[in-house]
């Protein structure tokens, strides 16, 4: 569901709640009347209550979006419509065939719309990796700037600052040896994959990125301290 769908559903729910409040107040004023069941205040309260229940159901459906069962049901209806069309095409009148074709198109549209709603409820990561932390809570609305989860990329890189005077010694695809505190007895080979285009004015250094290429590089983890020779 879009933000607009949620706002509309919430506004309708709030309007229905207000209607019940007004109707209940009017009902309470005549509650002692022996003929209360025949009074318009009683009917108004019943109607307002039904409207509130309908608004609450619509709001809940909008917030949750379509379930996998609803997707499966839409798919089953589409397949049934196609089967009916196949039987009709064996010799039934053209009008019935056209009606069956319309049912197929309607079922396909329902499936497409349900799938679109399900797709909107899914969050897809822009990279391959491992989920390290989930920040969102099921049932709550998430803003466009709020983090949903933290994902660690499968591709590990080493970023180091290099002094300005040593820049002439560096070039892309240059090989280097990487050492990490976690594995003091192991050496990892890497190549320079990127040299930052500008210096840090405070440290007079430039960030250099290396890509580990030696066997066992999968043992490197984000956040490890490393030195490069």
Structure report:
The chain has four helices and seven strands, in the order ααααβββββββ. The protein is of the alpha+beta class and 229 residues long. The protein has four domains: 62 residues; 53 residues; 27 residues, no CATH class; 74 residues, Efflux pump adaptor protein, beta barrel domain (Elongation Factor Tu (Ef-tu), domain 3, Beta Barrel). The strands form two sheets. Strands 3-6-5-4-7 form a five-stranded antiparallel beta sheet, with no helix packed on it. Strands 1-2 form a two-stranded antiparallel ribbon. 44% of the residues lie in helices and 18% in strands. 9% of the residues are buried. Helix 1 packs antiparallel against helix 2 and helix 3 packs antiparallel against helix 4. The model has no long low-confidence stretch (mean pLDDT 80).
Short description:
It is built from four helices and seven strands; from the N terminus they run ααααβββββββ. By secondary structure, the chain is of the alpha+beta class.
């Amino acid at each position: 569901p879009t933000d607009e769908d949620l706002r509309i559903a919430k506004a309708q729910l709030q309007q229905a709640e207000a209607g019940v409040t007004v109707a209940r107040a009017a009902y309470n004023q005549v509650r002692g009347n022996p003929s209360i069941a025949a009074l318009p205040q009683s009917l108004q309260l019943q109607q307002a209550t039904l409207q509130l229940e309908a608004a609450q159901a619509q709001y809940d459906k909008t917030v949750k979006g379509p379930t996998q069962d609803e997707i499966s049901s839409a798919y089953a209806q589409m397949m049934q419509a196609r089967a009916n069309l196949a039987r009709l095409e064996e010799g039934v009148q053209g009008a019935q065939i056209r009606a069956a074709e319309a049912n197929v198109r309607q079922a396909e549209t329902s499936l497409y719309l349900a799938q679109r709603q399900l797709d909107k409820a899914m969050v897809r990561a822009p990279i391959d990796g491992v989920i390290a932390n989930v920040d969102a809570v099921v049932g709550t609305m998430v803003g466009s700037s709020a983090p949903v989860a933290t994902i660690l990329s499968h591709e590990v890189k080493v970023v180091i600052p290099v002094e300005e005077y040593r820049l002439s010694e560096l070039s892309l695809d240059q090989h280097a040896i990487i050492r990490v505190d976690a594995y003091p007895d192991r050496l990892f080979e890497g190549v320079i994959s990127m040299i930052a285009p500008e210096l840090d004015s405070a440290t007079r250094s430039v960030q250099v990125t290396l890509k580990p290429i030696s066997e066992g590089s999968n043992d490197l983890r984000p956040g490890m301290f490393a030195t490069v020779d």
